[in-house]
Amino acid sequence: MPKLAKRMKKLVEKQPSEALPLAEAVGVLKQFDGTAFDQSVEISMRLGVDPAQADQIVRGSIVLPHGIGKEQRVVVFAKGPAAEAAQEAGADVVGDEDLAKKIQGGWTDFDVCIATPDMMKVVGPLGRVLGPRGLMPSPRAGTVTPEVVKTIGEYKAGKVEFRNDKGGNIHAIVGKLSFEPQQLVDNVQAFVDMIIGMKPSSIKGTYLRSAHLSATMSPSVKLAT
């Protein structure tokens, strides 16, 4: 059996069978560490939504209290003073038609794409490339905005976007395994509170059905919800 598979098998044997309070779940997850790299911590939430109903889409963004432990690469579509401001604010790449051509050619080496409203005529045709990767700017996510400086700062500080998938599930990075336990607790609690606060009014049954924490190379730990 490969070394990785043996490691995972041992960790699964330590995986709690019951749902745990958040602080305990974080403690267990940190015990799963043992790799040579700093693993990302992810939360997965199963929601009682009907993704086919437009009024039950749960989508938005949040700046986590302690960031996500990763420097996000930000590209911005802007011209003139807005482009200059974006560069000064720390955007990794700023452009217009030239940037669109580069992306149309297959370049997607970035984590966030922001656009000023006047640039959407240029950005719109990129939907086929950016959409499937979750990188398409949108007003609802706050990435189509005239406030590029503020938005760049938020993403550099650890802003996280989320949207339920076709199965009604939400996945998001909430930090690194090297974070202090309380930092992970704070980040996870902030994210869970955000999702709960966005419960669509048309949902009558159970909204938050389950939630799990996991690291890049670890089993998941079920949260008591």
Structural account:
By secondary structure, this protein is α/β, with parallel strands linked by helices. It is 32% helix and 21% strand. The strands form 3 sheets. It has a 4-stranded antiparallel beta sheet with strand order 7-1-8-9, covered by helices on one side. A 3-stranded parallel beta sheet has the order 4-3-5, with helices on both faces. Strands 2-6 form a two-stranded antiparallel ribbon. α2 (22-31) packs across α8 (181-197). The longest helix has 17 residues, at 181-197. It starts with a helix and ends with a strand.
Could you provide a short overview of the structure?
It contains 8 helices and 9 strands.
Secondary structure: elements and pairs:
Blueprint: H1 3-14, H2 22-31, E1 40-47, E2 59-63, E3 74-77, H3 80-88, E4 93-95, H4 97-104, E5 112-115, H5 120-123, H6 127-130, H7 148-156, E6 159-163, E7 169-176, H8 181-197, E8 208-215, E9 221-222
Parallel strand pairs: 3-4, 3-5
Antiparallel strand pairs: 1-7, 1-8, 2-6, 8-9
Helix pairs in contact: 2-8
> Could you tell me the radius of gyration in angstroms?
19 Å
Separate helix tally: 8
Mean pLDDT: 91
Fraction of residues in H or I helices: 25-40%
What is the topology, as strand order, of the major beta sheet? 7-1-8-9
Low-pLDDT segments, ≥5 res:
none
Distance between the termini: 36 Å
Which range does the strand content fall in?
A: 15-25%
What is the number of E strands?
9
SSE series: HHEEEHEHEHHHEEHEE
Structural class, from secondary structure content? alpha/beta
Overall, the morphology is globular
